[in-house]
Specification:
This protein is mainly alpha-helical and 238 residues long. The protein is built from ten helices and no strands.
Length: 238
């Protein structure tokens, strides 16, 4: 097995050991119940938001939990002194988060299609989910690497949710008028929401290009300029 494959296997084993996978699945099952109890129109509004919650917010929380558990047990230092590159270590964590998001994606989308019959471009929705996971995992790394402990990470994540996710929900429910939409483009969560909505109905091309470009730019800048440099220092602090 390749070094990357071994790292991914180790990440999955730790997710099972720390019951992070169980927590993630339970959260997705809550979304399944919500979808089952909702009507078609509500589901059309909720599905993009629920997928966004798992791909964005949950990825950040689960990544942080894995990081601090791993750091607490000292396994992180062992990995860092082994003959593997920093990029392989980071890529293994990204792939693991994508796998977690895929499990959630399958549960949520299958529930929506089983309980409510409506057209959806599953492939586009899945590809959008991967883009959102990778971008929000980068944000999750920044929050994690600047937090003293997991509690501080949770507080910062909740703050991120209020700033990025709450306005998305409010505009989806019509509480915030569409005339304020331009302000929300600063939020990666809103860009992800637009990508998900494009799988259900037409979205203006310029919005798609802007959203996709923004979400790709986030990890493209954060990983080489900050995360790859900061990760080793924080991990070796013990």
């Amino acid at each position: 097995m390749s070094k990357l494959g071994q790292l991914i296997k180790g990440e999955i084993i730790r997710l099972v050991k720390y019951k992070i996978i169980v927590f993630g699945v339970l959260a997705s099952l809550i979304w399944v119940v919500i979808i089952a109890l909702s009507d078609v129109e509500t589901t059309l509004t909720l599905v993009p938001f629920l997928v966004l919650m798992d791909a964005g917010l949950m990825s950040t929380i689960l990544l942080g939990a894995s990081f601090f558990y791993e750091k607490q047990e000292g396994t992180m230092q062992t990995i860092l002194v082994s003959p593997v590159s920093m990029w392989a270590i980071l890529l293994a964590k990204i792939v693991t988060m994508v796998l977690m998001a895929t499990i959630s994606f399958i549960l949520v989308v299958c529930a929506a299609l089983i309980f409510h019959d409506f057209p959806v471009d599953v492939v586009r929705l899945f590809l959008s989910s991967i883009i959102v996971v990778i971008s929000h995992t980068a944000i999750g790394f920044v929050l994690t690497l600047t937090a003293r402990d997991y509690m501080q990470l949770l507080i910062r994540t909740m703050g991120m949710m209020l700033v990025f996710f709450l306005p998305v929900l409010l505009i989806a429910l019509g509480i915030i008028p569409q005339s304020f939409e331009f302000i929300l483009f600063i939020s990666p969560a809103y860009s992800g929401q637009l990508l998900f909505e494009s799988a259900l109905h037409d979205v203006e091309t310029w919005k798609m290009i802007l959203s996709c470009g923004y979400l790709i730019a986030i990890p493209s800048l954060l990983y080489p300029l900050y995360i790859s440099r900061r990760y080793r220092a924080v991990a070796m602090e013990g």
